[in-house]
Design brief:
This is Transcriptional regulator. The chain is of the alpha+beta class. Helices cover 43% and strands 25% of the residues. The protein has two domains: 2-76, Winged helix-like DNA-binding domain superfamily/Winged helix DNA-binding domain (Arc Repressor Mutant, subunit A, Orthogonal Bundle), CATH 1.10.10; 87-168. It has seven helices and seven strands, in the order ααβααββααββαββ. The longest helix is centred in the C-terminal third of the chain and has 15 residues, at 131-145.
């Protein structure tokens, strides 16, 4: 959906990177390497998004880092669009809400870093989750999202659990 509205693949990758997790930061060379794109094409898109106020940049020593502009009027809408593009909204709808005893759901791994790798890693924190039903729901979610979903179920959240929080009760 997002790639139909925005024809620049590099711009889509940048929006995913910075709006899937608002604390994500990036540097020109690091982003070019991560996206396997030329530094020039990444620089052009970074400048466009910065000029539009969607991204902000900070000078850190000799390097300039970029991040999402949380003050931009479209920040929440862009975050929502990226979540829908990645299928995170369907993941919550299909898998998490229908299990019942989930206290917390966190996307970790590549997607939490803003990398659309095709495999969504999800950690569910809860008790008495029906594993058989969960497997069925994961298959349904994978069909709807056209992405692979890997789920880890734990009873207590580890202290170092970082990622995109989809649900917290």
């Amino acid at each position: 959906m997002l790639d139909i509205l925005i024809t620049s693949k590099t711009r889509v990758k940048l929006l995913v990177k910075f709006f899937v997790q608002e604390t994500n930061k990036g540097y020109l060379r690091g982003l070019a390497e991560e996206f396997k794109e030329s530094t020039n094409s990444v620089r052009v898109e970074l400048n466009r998004l910065s000029d539009a106020g969607i991204l902000v940049s900070q000078q850190e020593g000799k390097m300039k880092s970029y991040s999402a502009n949380r003050q931009h009027p479209l920040f929440d809408e862009l975050k929502s669009l990226v979540a829908k593009y990645l299928g995170l909204d369907k993941l919550v709808e299909v898998v998490i809400k229908k299990l019942g005893t989930v206290k917390k759901a966190v996307v970790v791994g590549d997607y939490a870093k803003g990398i659309d790798s095709g495999v969504i890693e999800l950690v569910l924190v809860g008790k008495d989750i029906n594993e058989e039903y969960l497997s069925f729901l994961i298959l349904k979610a994978e069909e709807k999202m056209d992405r692979q979903v890997k789920v880890t179920v734990v009873e207590e959240a580890p202290f170092d659990l970082e990622g995109v929080i989809l649900l917290e009760i």
